[in-house]
């Protein structure tokens, strides 16, 4: 969901453009929460996100979302059909064509599912190779396509929202979401170049850290030391092949391993890992850490 004047205007424009979305979010039959939510978002440019005014608006956004998640399934089916007709008739509002394609595909893969509406109120992010994003607890998200490395904290409280035959705890979902309103660029985590071969991604959260390793035959050094971490981590080789050594912090050799694409290694805290032999192609690996 979004913050900033541009993002709030986008939400307001989508509500004005798609009658099906207005009905789903409580418009007309539940007018006050939806209209008040839109009005409040338009007036939040100079309001601190910790202020009562901002939190009051988020309460109304929660009411709109709860209305959507608890609406009768027969009505959802009707509104999904209406949304697809609206798109067929050329309605777009603030929705980009690439997002329209996502909605259509979702309607084929998950017919009549409430999640078909989600691209209208969630940020649609298309990450380029090497980009990283971070979602805090309590934020709706879904993966659409492509390959990625996901770091998840030790938890068993994942709450489903849509696009699944499994049980959805709607009440817990509505209570757990933080209804944070921000633009997609705020989720991106910038890369920090540690060495010629190592990039680090460290979000504003001490629990997660990710290192991207790229070594190859054109290396200036004969070996490459990977970051030594004081917590456990996992090494995933994503392409190429080579040789790595594992040692203690006192450089006592533990083992030497031939690695290739698809190999996964557990790295205990404070163990040194270094590449000592490079394959014919560039070798890429990811070290994922959840402390």
UniProtKB/TrEMBL annotation:
GO cellular component, one term: cytosol
One of the protein's GO biological processes: GDP-mannose biosynthetic process
Domain Phosphomannose isomerase type I helical insertion: 52-122
GO molecular function annotations of the record: mannose-6-phosphate isomerase activity
Coiled-coil positions: none
Stored Gene3D superfamilies: Jelly Rolls, Phosphomannose Isomerase, domain 2
InterPro entries on file: Mannose-6-P_Isomerase, PMI_typeI_hel, RmlC-like_jellyroll, RmlC_Cupin_sf
A Pfam family per the record: PMI_typeI_hel
Name the UniProt record assigns to this protein: Phosphomannose isomerase type I helical insertion domain-containing protein
Species this protein is from: Caenorhabditis remanei
Phylogenetic classification of the source organism: Eukaryota, Metazoa, Ecdysozoa, Nematoda, Chromadorea
């Amino acid at each position: 969901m979004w913050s900033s004047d541009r993002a709030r205007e986008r939400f307001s424009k989508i509500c004005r453009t798609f009658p099906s979305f207005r009905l789903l979010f409580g418009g007309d039959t539940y007018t006050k929460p939806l209209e008040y939510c839109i009005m409040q978002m338009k007036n939040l440019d100079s309001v601190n996100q910790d202020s009562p005014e901002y939190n009051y608006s988020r309460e109304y956004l929660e009411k709109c979302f709860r209305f959507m998640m608890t609406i009768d399934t027969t009505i959802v089916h009707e509104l999904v059909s209406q949304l697809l007709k609206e798109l067929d008739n050329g309605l777009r509002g603030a929705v980009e064509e690439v997002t329209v394609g996502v909605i259509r595909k979702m309607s084929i893969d998950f017919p009549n599912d409430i999640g078909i509406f989600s691209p209208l109120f969630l940020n649609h992010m298309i990450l380029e190779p090497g980009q990283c994003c971070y979602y805090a607890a309590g934020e709706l998200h879904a993966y659409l396509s492509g390959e990625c490395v996901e770091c998840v904290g030790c938890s068993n409280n994942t709450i489903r929202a849509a696009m699944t035959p499994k049980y959805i705890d709607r009440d817990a979902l509505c209570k757990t979401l933080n209804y944070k309103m921000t633009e997609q660029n705020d989720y991106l985590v910038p890369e920090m170049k540690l060495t010629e071969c190592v990039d680090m991604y460290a979000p504003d959260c001490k629990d997660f850290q990710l290192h991207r390793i790229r070594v190859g035959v054109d290396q200036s050094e004969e070996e490459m030391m990977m970051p030594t971490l004081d917590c456990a981590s996992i090494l995933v080789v994503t392409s190429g092949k080579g040789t790595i050594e594992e040692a203690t912090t006192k450089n006592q050799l533990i083992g030497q391993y031939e690695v290739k694409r698809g190999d996964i290694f557990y790295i205990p805290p404070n163990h040194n890992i270094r590449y000592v032999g490079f394959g014919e192609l560039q070798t890429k690996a990811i070290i994922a850490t959840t402390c």
